[in-house]
Amino acid sequence: MKYADAIKTLRKKMLLTQVEFAGLLEVSFGTVNRWERGQYIPTMKLKRKLVPFFEKYNIEVPNE
User: Fold this and answer.
1) Tens of pLDDT, residue by residue, the chain (64 residues)
2) Are residues 7 and 35 in contact, defined by beta-carbon separation less than 8 angstroms?
């Protein structure tokens, strides 16, 4: 699974808007939007923040 798909799936499973998800991760709405559109992938620091959420919601951790 690509990061774009995994992040969007995670956010929807958490029942959060892009703005709420951005606040949780301390990034901008635009950053989340670009991740979900596949324009950018998260930095290593943010990937480490996301892993526990992927595991909690049983989403395959992307390896791209």
Assistant:
1) 899 999 999 999 999 999 999 999 999 999 999 999 999 999 999 999 999 999 999 999 988 7
2) yes
Domain presence at residue 62: no
**Alpha-carbon gap, residue 61 to 6, rounded angstroms:** 7
Task: Report the alpha-carbon distance of residue 48 to residue 62 in Å, rounded.
Answer: 12
Domain hosting 12: range is 3-57
* Assessment of whether the complete model's pTM goes beyond 0.85: yes
The radius of gyration computed from the CA coordinates of the chain, to the nearest angstrom, equals 10
63 burial class (0-12, 13-18, 19+ CB within 10 angstroms)? Answer: exposed
Domain count along the chain: 1
Q: Which two tokens stand for residue 31?
A: 């950053």
